[in-house]
Design goal:
19% of the residues are buried. Helices cover 85% and strands 0% of the residues. It is built from eleven helices and no strands. The protein has helices at 2-11, 17-52, 60-71, 79-88, 91-103, 107-155, 160-187, 191-215, 222-225, 228-256, 262-297. It has two domains: 16-155, no CATH class; 158-298, no CATH class. The protein is elongated, with a radius of gyration of 26 Å. The two termini are 13 Å apart.
């Protein structure tokens, strides 16, 4: 099983371009929708503010340049701080208000009315950001499932009916595992450490059960699949694949540190990390099924 699982993992990288194409497509389409939608909202907002402020001289490019300038001060080196500033502290809303406070003469006179217009446009802009993240999600899921189906077709093919059955089993058992871990943690906080070990074992057990129902036929008996040896091998391979993937990421990170352009380094590292994550997830998800399929064909 170890040799077969490693072969699945390393050969899966020939499909690396599929998840990249999907996520870039989702990002591209979503970004275009956000750009044109937000641009229209900004145009409307500026026209309404001009009407309120007796024809104040404000241009769209002035606001866009201001946003770009202010965005450089964001905490880009800390993802958690960046999310906090953007969403919890409403960075975009506050920055737009600051722009008008300096761009509109006698801003205090029109302050309340301008704030109301800004809030209305801001809420409309949020719709475009929901659309953006929807396309991003479609790109992520589309790339994952298409890549997974191609890899599965070679190593662990199954019918659509069995795929639906396995998905149902996966959902029920996964929900049960999450509920059990949550219950144990609520009773005793340190149980979160013990539950990590328990969840790993239960996850391996779940993978073997799914593999049996996905690949079973008259030549495969339940006892041939559900045994300590196979569950232990699945656990070992999960740990080994995670270790290999982590090693790849560390190696690539140090290699990219030699590149002087930090923005390029970050983008390349994110792309590589995404591909490795997809391939690792798919390989782990099918390794038990691939082993049962190999047993069936032996």
């Amino acid at each position: 099983m170890i040799k077969n699982s490693l072969k699945i993992y390393f050969t899966s990288f020939k499909y690396f371009w599929i998840p990249l194409v999907f996520i870039l497509g989702g990002l591209g389409i979503g970004s275009l929708i956000v750009y044109f939608g937000a641009r229209n909202q900004i145009d409307d907002l500026l026209n309404r503010v001009k009407d309120l402020a007796n024809g104040a001289s404000i241009q769209v490019n002035d606001l866009i340049n201001y946003l770009i300038t202010e965005s450089r001060a964001l905490p880009w080196n800390s993802f958690t701080d960046l999310i906090r500033v953007l969403f919890k502290e409403n960075w975009l809303l506050g920055t737009i208000e600051n722009f008008f406070s300096t761009a509109v003469e006698d801003y205090a006179t029109y302050k309340d009315a301008i704030k109301a217009e800004i809030l209305s446009s801001y809420n409309s802009m949020l719709t475009y950001y929901v659309i953006f993240f929807s396309f991003l999600g479609v790109g992520l899921l589309g790339g994952y499932f298409l890549t997974g189906s191609l890899i599965r077709k070679k190593w662990a093919p199954k019918s659509i009916l069995r795929a639906l059955l396995v998905a149902a089993i996966d959902f029920i058992l996964s929900a049960g595992i999450v509920a059990l871990i949550g219950y144990l943690t609520s009773l005793w906080t340190p149980a979160v450490y013990i539950s990590s070990i328990i969840s790993a074992v239960l996850f391996a057990f779940l993978m073997v059960i799914k593999a049996y129902f996905a690949q079973r036929d008259n030549s495969i008996k339940f006892k041939d699949v559900m045994n300590i040896k196979l569950i232990s091998l699945v656990l070992l391979m999960i740990f080994l694949l995670f270790l290999i993937s982590a090693g790849f990421l560390v190696l690539i990170f140090f290699l990219l540190m030699l590149i002087p352009f930090k923005q390029i380094t970050l983008l390349v590292l994110l792309a590589v990390a995404y591909v490795i994550f997809i391939m690792t997830s798919i390989s782990i998800n099918i390794l038990a099924e691939a082993e049962v399929y190999r047993m069936k064909k032996a």
